[in-house]
Write a structure and sequence with these properties.
Layout (H helix, E strand, L loop, with lengths): L9 H20 L24 H13 L4 E8 L2 E7 L5 E7 L6 E3 L3 H4 L20 H15 L4 E2 L3 E3 L2 E8 L2 E9 L5 E3 L6 E5 L6
Antiparallel strand pairs: 1-2, 1-10, 2-3, 3-4, 5-7, 6-7, 7-8, 8-9
Length: 208
């Protein structure tokens, strides 16, 4: 997936979304009625009414993650909606979701969470979902080299570890402006172009 090192291709998100829909139909049709704790997180959960705050978004993400035994961590608000990370019972990063402000719909985030996540994405299967050939420090170096070439003036913050990849905030003069992810096996970079402009965030301790 070396093409991800260059410009982000909008078609990739469309393909990811279509694949997620297909995967969700297969997943639901094969379900026996019980709650699944592992496997593709391609179902969609909806909330009655719009999301008005970070706290609302966090509660919606919590309800979505609960069926897999996950809980909400960091919550962020962008002009295109809300983002939340889901953590496992040990507090490790599990996956990332998006929350629609208008409807409260929660779904797996586009891009790395769908395509690279080896535990909850569309193509799980790595025996050790946390085995990686690229560590956090190297991921930071890769991210910063990519930003120097493609987003001059931005720097990467500390990496958050998810199964199969890292996600890092991107900073301008120390202030968060966006996000990108680095694959922990290939070093490919995927910039999160879908969020829009960053507005505000809450860390795990105060995201409830």
């Amino acid at each position: 997936m070396t093409w991800l090192r260059g410009r982000w291709v909008p078609l990739a998100v469309l393909v990811s979304a279509l694949a997620a829909l297909i995967a969700s139909l297969v997943w639901v049709s094969g379900a026996s009625g019980g709650q699944f704790r592992h496997g593709p997180m391609t179902e969609i959960a909806s909330r009655d009414g719009p999301v008005h705050s970070l706290a609302d978004a966090g509660r919606a993400a919590d309800r979505f993650g609960d069926r897999w035994g996950l809980h909400v961590g960091e919550v962020m608000r962008f002009t295109n909606g809300y983002y939340a990370e889901l953590l496992d019972p040990r507090g490790n990063g599990a996956t990332e979701v998006l929350i629609d402000a208008g409807s409260g719909t929660v779904h797996l985030e586009f891009g790395p969470a769908m395509m690279w996540n080896t535990a909850y994405g569309m193509m799980p299967g790595r025996a050790d979902s946390r085995a990686a050939t690229i560590g956090p420090e190297q991921a930071s170096r890769i991210a910063n080299r990519w930003l120097e070439e493609h987003r001059p003036g931005l720097r990467a913050a500390e990496p958050e570890d998810f199964p199969g990849y890292y996600t890092l905030h991107t900073l301008r003069d120390g202030t968060t402006v966006g996000m990108l992810s680095v694959n922990d096996r290939t070093g490919d970079v995927w910039y999160h172009t879908w969020h829009g402009r960053f507005i505000e965030m809450r860390e795990p301790a105060d995201s409830q």
